[in-house]
TrEMBL record:
Pfam families named in the record: MOSC, YiiM_3-alpha
SUPFAM superfamilies: PK beta-barrel domain-like
Span list, region Disordered: 13-34
Xref: PROSITE patterns: MOSC
Species: Cupriavidus gilardii
The protein, known as: MOSC domain-containing protein
Domain MOSC: 34-171
Cited InterPro entries: Benzoxazolinone_Detox_Enz, MoCF_Sase_C, Pyrv_Knase-like_insert_dom_sf, Tri_helical_YiiM-like
Taxonomic classification: Bacteria, Pseudomonadati, Pseudomonadota, Betaproteobacteria, Burkholderiales
Length: 231
């Protein structure tokens, strides 16, 4: 997929609302995103008007803008059925509906220009239990992780404005060997090979991903996914 073929199909924001259902009282989430028709200002903490239910886990400079490939929706409808939540963009809590390319085609550290905003790909998205609630399936977060149809996050290097229909232009690719799919695949595939983990730890990882791989490197053990995937 040529980087020149990437278009932002929709720009979406959401507000934090009570979320979680039985057994998760007091939880809030802004995973329910809706399209914005006008140009949106984007700062270092994300899109104007966008919220996060729990800033300890979501949002912040390293998760300022969440992208999800629109082409995955057709595959999900084949895999789990034509659910209402899959009828429009925003099902996965994304801010940018990315039309053109997927996790195989974008890499850690990529620098992209969208509108007047410059963004750097900071990390893959690690799916959590809120997807289970949103899709009405207890295994949805696990399915997303297994499929590697996970999406990714950008940090904001230069604030500005963007809107639906803008092209995403690749400016730099310093780590062409490390696609989002490859990096996330190490988590999914329970990789503990010391040589490979050393190569990963040489990358400019965000703190949470660095800690994950450092623990694997030191212990040879795999982290417990249950709190993240099941809540």
């Amino acid at each position: 997929m040529s980087p020149s073929q990437v278009t932002i199909r929709e720009v979406l924001t959401g507000t934090a609302k009570p979320y979680g259902g039985p057994g998760k009282p007091g939880k809030q989430s802004a995973i329910d995103k809706h399209p914005v028709g006008a140009p949106v200002a984007v700062g270092t903490l994300g899109l104007q008007g966008d919220e996060q239910g729990d800033r300890r886990i979501h949002g912040g400079p390293e998760k300022a803008v969440h992208c999800y490939p629109w082409q995955h929706y057709a595959t999900w409808r084949q895999d789990i059925g034509p659910l209402p939540v899959l009828e429009r963009a925003g099902a996965f809590g994304e801010n940018l509906s990315w039309a053109g390319g997927d996790e195989q085609d974008v890499c850690l550290g990529d620098v992209w220009r969208i509108g007047s905003v410059t963004l750097e790909l900071s990390q893959p998205r690690q799916p959590c239990w809120k997807l289970n609630v949103r899709f009405g399936r207890e295994d949805m977060s696990a399915l997303v992780q297994q499929s590697l149809r996970i999406g990714w996050y950008f940090r904001v290097l230069e604030p500005g404005k963007l809107q639906a229909g803008d092209a995403a232009v690749l400016l730099a690719r310093p780590h062409a060997d490390w696609s989002v799919a490859r990096l996330a695949g190490l988590v999914r595939d329970r990789e503990t090979d010391p040589e490979l983990l050393d190569a990963v730890l040489a990358l400019p990882l965000v703190d949470s991903w660095r800690r994950l791989f450092e623990r694997r490197r030191q212990s040879g053990a795999i982290e417990d996914w249950t709190p993240r995937l099941r809540g």
